[in-house]
Amino acid sequence: MFFLEIEHELINLAQDSKHVCLIGDFNARTGHLPDFFTPDSLFTGNVCDDFSFSETRVRSVVFEKFSIPLQRTVQDVIVNNFGYKFKEFCKNNDLYIVNSRLGSDKDIGSITCRYRITVDYVIASVNIFEVLQDFDIHDFCNLYSDVHKPVSFTISRPNHQSDRRYETHIESQPGVKLWCPDKTGQFCYNINLSDVKAIEHSLNELSCNIPTAREADITKIAKDISNLFINAAQESLGLQKNLPPKHNACNFNKPWFNKDCRTAGKKYHLAKKKKIHNIHKTVENKVNLV
User: Fold this and answer.
1) What SS3 class is residue 105?
2) Number of CB atoms found within 10 A of residue 198's CB
3) Pairing with 27, which of 86, 103, 112, 206 sits 20 to 30 Å away (CA)?
């Protein structure tokens, strides 16, 4: 119920804003649980919609531009019950954990309590990451708390033109078509063996010089591996134009699509998340969603 109450407040208070940021003690130990959807999970989880794909594309652009890691590094690897609920809350509301992704805590994931656990988080919508700065988890001080460490960060002035800029960039870049199982053989055939050997050579060199290995060398190998699969996918599946998000081209720009419509839509999706209709698919429950 705790996270449902927060979700209701988000609907009521932040429905017209793309810049959302929450901070506090969530009593959640998340370990390495992902706080994001991937394109594959959008299909297998039956939550695929235009808005989800739009958010995923914008996240990719923002995280790449500001060198924000998608996978989090953590020192507290334990997951508790609240951790699972917190993860779903973040994924369902397109909020991302800032801890271990920015500032002095980047790629560290420091603990936030004196008991060697992490339960204090800053979570934010993807647009906030453009303006978040100087994220720090400070040393414990009993002047501030008897348990928790101080957490600080800076927010610069938002650029309200950023959303459209990201969308324009996304639309101008063609993307690989969705995976087709029938193309598996063709995909394997189109993997460039010369590139594979070059990657193997780079990995062997790196493994022989681990003490002097640089982050740039590791990053280059990772990009080479990524390009290897992307190039094979392009040749096998072909490209398609990234269309602008439909929610910007349809109802959201209509004069009748006002605040009440937004609220009703979010409440509808929130009701679906409770899985009442999914568990008991009756006409009555479907009507009650509306």
Assistant:
1) helix
2) 14
3) 103
- CATH number for 2-172: choose from 2.60.40, 3.60.10, 3.90.1150, 3.30.420: 3.60.10
Q: What is the pTM of this model?
A: 0.57
Which residues contact residue 95 at a Cβ distance below 8 angstroms, ignoring those fewer than 6 apart?
Answer: 20, 22, 35, 89, 123, 124, 125
Q: What is the DSSP string of 11-53?
A: HHHSTT-S--EEEEE----BTT---S--HHHHHHTT---HHHH
C-alpha span between 56 and 70 (Å, rounded): 11
Domain ranges for the chain? 2-172, 175-240, 254-289
The pLDDT tens digits of the residues spanning 212-240 come to: 888 888 889 999 999 999 999 999 999 88
pLDDT in tens, 45-73: 444 444 455 667 788 888 988 999 999 99
Amino acid letter, residue 255: P
pLDDT one-digit tens code per residue, 97-156: 999 999 999 999 999 998 899 999 999 999 899 898 889 999 988 888 889 999 999 988
Q: What pLDDT score was predicted for residue 216?
A: 86
Give the C-alpha separation, 127 to 64, whole Å. 13
DSSP 55-67: HHHHHHHHHHHTT
